[in-house]
Every structure is written in C-alpha cells, then in structure tokens.
Design brief:
Layout (H helix, E strand, L loop, with lengths): L23 H13 L5 H5 L5 E3 L15 E14 L5 E8 L2 E7 L4 H6 L5 E11 L2 E5 L2 E4 L9 E3 L8 H14 L8 H7 L4 H9 L7 H5 L4 H27 L11 H8 L6 H14 L6 E6 L5 H14 L3 E5 L3 H15 L6 E4 L5 H13 L4 E4 L13 E6 L7 H8 L3 E2 L5 E2 L2 E6 L5 H7 L4 E5 L10 E6 L3 H13 L3 E5 L7 H18 L5 E4 L5 H13 L4 E4 L12 E6 L7 H8 L10 E6 L5 H12 L3 H12 L1 H4 L19 H17 L1 H11 L4 H5 L1
Parallel strand pairs: 4-6, 9-16, 9-17, 10-12, 10-13, 11-12, 13-16, 18-23, 19-21, 19-22, 20-21, 22-23
Antiparallel strand pairs: 1-8, 2-3, 2-5, 3-4, 5-6, 5-7, 14-15
Helix pairs in contact: 6-8, 8-23, 8-24, 9-11, 10-11, 11-12, 20-21, 23-24
The chain binds adenosine-5'-diphosphate (ADP) and magnesium ion.
C-alpha cells in the first residue's frame, strides 16, 4: 500500500482478482462468458472476428502523442495516488525522456496500484485525451516495460463484461488449433469470384502478418475480409432461398371469395380506393387463392390506407370460410382497428372477437371460446393473440400491422397457429405483414428474399403534404399560440412529450407536467393526457374522447406513435424532437395530414444539437417521403438497427454491409441460385459453417 499517499476514512482498495486468473471455477466462468458470446464449438470461435486492431508493435515517445490518437509508451512512475475528489480515483504521473503523461482510473484494483509503485517502469497503451488538467490517458492498459514487442497487429474482439481481450484471444487461438478450416467453396468458384481460400482469410484476420496494410484491415477492404463477407452473404442468400423453397412446399388453405361479402364491403366504402390500393389488393387476393402460404409485406407510407386493404383480404378469407387474425403492436392501435373493422364488417354480419392481455379473465375466456369454436370469424388484438392458450378453429389469414414492431419470436409463433387438419396435413395460415417503415430496395432484396413485397405508392386524393417547422424551444409561447389558433378553427392537436430513455418514470412525470402547464397556458381549451401507465380502458376512453372531439389537445408520450388515425387532428407538436430517431419522427408526423386540412408538424428542439440530431431534423424538414426518410435512416443507423433485429440480440449480418458491399450481394445471390440447383452438398456445407443456430431466425 506504499503507493497510496492520500487515503481518507480507511476505505481500503478492494483486492479483486482480475476475471481471467486461472482457478478451476474461473475456468467455467470464462466458459460461461464465452457462451454468452455464442462461442461454444470451435467453429464459433473461427468466425468470431476482430472488430478492430491495435498497433502494439512500436513504442513512441510521450511527446509524440496527439489527443484523440492511441499510442504505446514506456515510462517511469513519478507519482501515484488515490484521490477522493471529485470521486474516488487512481491518478498517476509518468515520464519518459521526452515528457510527462497523466494517467487516471475511475475503477481500479489494488493490483493496479502495485503496478504503479513510484519508480516502476511500465508500458502504457491508451488514447490521449485533453482533460481538465491537460493531456491524459483514462483507463490505459498497463503492463511491465521491456518485454518483447509483438511483430504484428493485435486483434481486438467483440467481447462481453468481465471477459478480457487476452483470455478471449487465448480461447480463440486454442480453438483455431482444432477447428475445421476446410474450404466450403471449390477452387473453380474461388477463381471465378477472385476469392482467397477460407483458411488463409481466417488466419490473416486473427493473426495479421507484419506486412499487412493497417488501413485495409481496418476498413475491411483486405481480400481476407472480402472472402468473409462473401461467405456471410452467400450463407444468407442460401438460407433465404431454402426458406422460400420450404414455404412453397407447405400447404395452405386456398381462400376464394364468393360474390357476397367482399363485394358488399367494397360497395359500402365511403371512399374510392386509390389505384395503388386496388393494385396491392389484387396482388394479395391472388396470393390467397394459392395452396401454399402467402408471405407478403405490404408497405405504404403513413396514411396511405393500408387498413382497408387488410380488411378486403380479411373479407375474402372470411367468405371462404376461414378465420382471420389481425394483430397490432399496441392496445391503442388494436382498439382502433377493432372499431374500424367492426364499422365496416359488422353490418355485413361478420362475427368479430376482441382479445388483449388486459381483458378480464372471464372476457378472455369467452373470446377464447368463440375463437376455438370458429364462431368468431375475425379476431383483432395485441400480442395476446399468440399466447399458447389461444386456439383457432380454422385460422386462414394472419395480418400483422406495423410488423417491424413485433419481435422475431412473436412472428414465428403466430405462423405456427395453423390448423392441424384430420388426415395429417397441416395448413399454414397466409400471412400479410404491414409496415409504414418502407424498406429500401437493397434491404428488401437481401433480408426478405422470401417475402413478396407490395407497395402503396400513392396517398388518397385531397391530402396536402404536412408542413414541417423546426422551432427552438425558446419560442415555446409562439407554438402555444399556434395551437390555440388551430383549436379555434375547430381542429385538434397532439403534443408529444420528450422521450426520456433512461427512465420511464421521468418520462411519465414530464407528460404530467406538460399537461398541467398546457392546461394553464390554454384555459379555454380541453387538454387531455395519455401515456403508457394508464389502464387500457382508461386509454381507450381518452382516445374515444379525442376521436369524438371532446378533447382538443392530446398530450401524449410515444404511445401514440404508430398507427393512430384521427383525421381531424391537424397539428403535431413534438418536444425535444432531437431525442427521437428518424423513423419515429416520421411516424409521429404521420399522425396528422390524414384529413383534408393543411396540417403542420412542429418539431421543437433544444440547442446545442449534436451532428446526428441536426442531420435528422434537416431530413425531416426537407422531405415527407417515407422512402427517402428510410434511406437516410439506413445511412445513419445501419441495417441491423433499422430492421429492429438488434432487439433480438443477433444481427443477421456481422461483417458485410449491404450498401458498400452491394457488388458482393449480387454475386452471392447468383452463386446461391446456382448451388441450390447444381451442388446442394456444397450449399449445405457452407450453411453449416455460417448459420449455426440461426435457422429459425431466418424463417420469419
Ligand atoms: P395507414 O396506411 O397509415 O395505416 P390508414 O389505413 O389508417 O393508413 O388510412 C388513413 C386514413 O385514410 C384513414 O382515415 C382511412 O379511412 C383513409 N383512407 C384510406 N383509403 C382512402 C382512400 N382511397 N380515399 C380516401 N381516404 C382513404
Ligand atoms: Mg396503419
């Protein structure tokens, strides 16, 4: 403890051994951590590839370090102490011939303090930052000075809490000794696409030779990366094509409409379908006639009128004697669908059931019975629909609204709700996925090779695009005045409260405060409040009041983000718009502009804006086109996050990038088709290497 020069109140530094030290239990701990990364068999380690590399081949003088850059130095410890202000930290000063360097740790072990004993010579690696007291390294890595330097770049792997890079590296190297690195692709194919052998690529990436170009490795332009990306894309294309082939072999009940319900529904509509709606309705109708399950994505921008298209499909299915399930991601949205569909279909004699998690046990049981007996022809609800207990008599069509909001697992569960028919054949329900998040072509092509896509590319007539205004929140009073004018003109407004990601309670509090404040600021206006903590009947009651015009301004958290359709609302105010993502802002803006009135979306922001927030707000200001927004969103966020696969914990593509590797995507597609026709064995070998444990995921 000689290095502790300032120690108050006797809070001794805890002696906690680093996670990687080897005792028998520790071994299994490391194994558990490895498992968490999906690293079980040698094969898994082989393709657990570095996210970056560090250059530890050189020692540089302290004076040559620049802020923002990483570097490695060797120096002598001049001072080292534990400070307690502003918080407990380990602080040290070291020097070499060229200059001095400050080091700081906010969490540390006593072993680190020992390493930093005054007079010790140490090797330090880290990023130089400009701190309050001048340049410093925070949490640098420290080892003893004078040991041999590596001759090649050091890989840095994706890891998890408590699993150090050295232990992970050791585990990978060990696995590489026994793993099968045989090429899955033949020499002719490698030649044709200019690919290097798999084993060579793997060796280069785990142990870059000294002469390899640092930037090629980092930018992933090296032939080794190219090979890996190609392999990954090929595996993806293969499994999507296989999924499609499997689907075509499945049995679905063909659903042909008669001359009654569908025609009656069309005849009663208060509007004429747009040409785009007619076209997609026709595509869906044809799919439903087939004896294998439809798997179609209906995409259409917010407000383009997807619900009626779903209703037409439902009418066709019901008329053919099948049951239809329509599932929405929130109760508010499910309720709205229920009201709308009931309005259209109940007068025509269709039996509708309503099922959500918040129903009383009794009501749920009643609904369950009507569904199981087949009496309920149309079932509208939330996730509750996919609970195991819900049994359908003859489910023929599933509609998922805002499909990207559902987890992969949920989608999978629903598609298994088919009917087991006497005689053994199982009918899989047709499936219609609806989304207002338009998926850019490149994405649709790769992620959804087994999904047919229909697009509504036109809005109903008479809509003028929503005008977007960006307003600093210092001009709040002007916004309130705008609300007041709009209400006096007989229209309605939403006021969306800021997203508070770190705390739901705080978010709720903000909504309550905003409600109070607006009520006072607009004394003659009826201000309502809706948020996720309300009971569902309370939420439903408030939405009903807003729909009927008994509430003028609805203060809301993001519970109203998707799907809500109140045509008389013409003003959307979003507070702290800089905290929302692009897709979310587009969804929010889509809540207005649904009637004939000129609508306005006010995005209030607080300065200073980050670079990315500025880009997002600009995108919102510049365009109302959902496809363009989606394209920019993809650019800013990357495909994994875009598709919501991040929630499922496993992005489909780890190495390839659909935008920058578009050429490889095309080649992989071509080769996948060829292999499936002429060399199934090769296809299977390849899939086995790349798709361990992911097959289910791909099927959705
Ligand atoms: P979304 O595609 O966002 O789900 P909705 O289905 O909620 O859109 O439709 C938006 C609004 O437009 C609804 O009020 C709906 O009744 C109306 N609508 C749909 N199709 C038409 C049409 N062809 N002409 C006029 N209004 C339409
Ligand atoms: Mg909708």
């Amino acid at each position: 403890m000689s290095t502790v020069s300032t120690q108050r109140k006797g809070k001794p530094a805890r002696a906690k051994p680093p996670a990687e030290s080897a005792s028998p239990q520790q071994g299994s701990l490391v194994e558990r951590k490895l498992q968490r990364l999906g690293l079980i068999e040698p094969q898994d380690f082989v393709v657990h590839l570095p996210i970056r590399y560090e250059d530890e081949t050189q020692i540089v003088p302290i004076a040559s370090l620049r802020p923002g850059q990483s570097g490695q130095v060797e120096a002598e410890v001049l001072r080292s102490e534990v400070l307690f202000r502003p918080r407990r930290q380990l602080s040290a000063l070291v020097a070499d011939d060229s200059g001095e360097l400050a080091l700081r740790w906010l969490n540390f072990y006593s072993s680190q303090q020992k390493q930093l004993a005054v007079g010790n010579r140490i090797r330090i690696r880290g990023e130089l930052r400009s701190g309050f007291q001048g340049p410093e390294m925070v949490h640098p890595r420290v080892t003893v000075a004078g040991t041999a330097l590596p001759s090649a770049l050091t890989p840095v792997y994706p890891t998890t809490d408590g699993l150090s890079q050295p232990s992970l590296r050791r585990a990978i190297d060990k696995a590489l000794e026994t793993a099968d690195l045989e090429d899955t692709l033949g020499p002719e194919i490698l030649g044709r696409y200019g690919l290097i052998p798999f084993a060579q690529a793997i060796r280069v990436l785990h142990h870059p030779p000294p002469d390899v170009s640092y930037s090629d490795l980092i930018e992933r332009g090296h032939p080794a990366w190219r090979r890996i990306k190609f392999d990954e894309l090929l595996a993806q294309q293969l499994s999507l094509a296989l999924a499609r082939a499997a689907r075509l072999k499945q049995k679905a009940r063909p659903l042909a409409a008669g001359a009654g319900l569908l025609l009656a529904l069309r005849a009663n509509l208060p509007f004429r379908l747009t040409a785009a709606q007619e076209r997609v309705a026709c595509e869906i109708s044809n799919d439903l006639l087939r004896a294998f399950p439809m798997h179609r994505l209906l995409q259409g921008d917010v407000g383009s009128g997807k619900t009626i298209v779903a209703a037409l499909a439902a009418a066709q299915a019901i008329e053919a004697g099948a049951q239809v399930a329509i599932m929405a991601p929130t109760e508010i949205l499910a309720e709205q669908h229920y009201l709308k569909l009931a309005g259209w279909l109940q007068p025509l004699g269709v039996e509708i059931a309503w099922l959500t998690g918040s129903l009383s046990i009794k009501k749920r049981r009643e609904a369950g019975e009507r569904i199981a007996s087949g009496q309920a022809q149309l079932v509208v609800g939330t996730q509750a629909l996919i609970q195991d207990k819900v049994v359908f008599a003859q489910l023929g069509l599933i509609v998922l609204d805002e499909q990207h909001r559902f987890g992969v697992g949920q989608r999978l569960q629903l598609s298994r709700k088919g009917e087991a028919v006497k005689g053994g054949t199982e009918f899989i329900p047709h499936q219609l996925n609806m989304s207002a998040t338009p998926i850019p072509r490149t994405l649709a092509m790769t992620f959804f090779a087994d999904l047919d896509v229909s697009a509504i590319d036109e809005l109903p007539p008479g809509r003028s695009p929503v005008v977007t205004k960006l307003v600093a929140d210092t001009r709040r009073s002007e916004v309130v005045a705008h609300v007041s004018t709009e209400i006096r003109a007989g229209r309605q407004a939403y006021w969306v409260c800021p997203l508070v990601e770190e705390s739901e309670a705080l978010q709720l509090q903000t909504a309550v405060d905003t409600h109070l404040w607006l009520t006072q600021a607009l004394p003659d206006v009826r201000v309502g409040l809706i948020h996720g903590r309300l009971k569902s009947d309370e939420k439903a009651a408030i939405m009903a009041q807003f729909r009927q015009g008994d509430i003028d301004v609805l203060v809301a958290t993001t519970v109203i983000e998707v799907g809500v359709d109140i045509p008389n609302a013409s003003l959307m105010v979003v507070e702290h718009a800089e905290r929302f993502g692009l897709a979310q802002l587009h969804q929010l803006r889509g809540r207005v502009g649904r009637g004939g009135n000129q609508s306005v979306c006010v995005l209030m922001y607080q300065t200073p804006l980050s670079q990315i927030a500025r880009q997002r707000l600009r995108a919102m200001y510049e365009t109302t086109d959902g496809f363009e927004i989606a394209r920019r969103d993809l650019e800013q966020r990357g495909p994994g996050e875009f598709l919501g696969v991040r929630q499922s914990g496993q992005a489909l593509l780890r190495f390839a990038d659909l935008e920058t590797d578009a050429l490889l995507v095309g080649q992989a597609q071509e080769l996948a088709a060829e292999l499936l026709k002429s060399d199934i064995g090769m296809a299977k070998r390849h899939l086995k290497r790349w798709m361990r444990g992911k097959q289910d995921f791909l099927r959705t």
